[in-house]
Amino acid sequence: xxxxxxVLSHSDPATGLPTGPRPTPAEEAAEGQTSQAILALxxxxxxxxxxEEIVQIDLRGRSDVADYMVICSGRSSRQVAAISEKLADRxxxxxxxxxxxxxxxxxxxxLIDAGDVIVHVFRPEVREFYQxxxxxxxxxxxxxxx
Length: 146
Fold this sequence. Notes:
CATH architecture: 2-Layer Sandwich
CATH topology: Beta Polymerase, domain 2
Structural class: alpha+beta
CATH superfamily: Beta Polymerase, domain 2
Distance between the termini: 46 Å
CATH class: Alpha Beta
Order of helices and strands: HHEEHEEEHHE
Number of helices: 5
């Protein structure tokens, strides 16, 4: 069965977990989809949609799953769902990336897998409970606002 989207060829379609080698930087550059370009689009999108407490974490050299993680909050489940949907639409329209999304039904915590960039959009109470940033903190956390 052929892969539907070569950008996500390193992910198992059923689980979204990595199953093989990620594209090389040269392959990404040829597609115009470097992890930095994806990150820039993600940061602009969540900022445009009024996400709060936007944090980016550099995972390069620390994880084979992605190069960057972005964590942000929406004030309500409705805003969390809207931020997530608009981000998925922009990635598809501007970079031809079909993302994997989990948690949109309840919109307490939505995970968006854009290949080299993993995005977590939380309601504030859920973000506080899980404190995801603290798992990745050792000197690698950078505020995207400011």
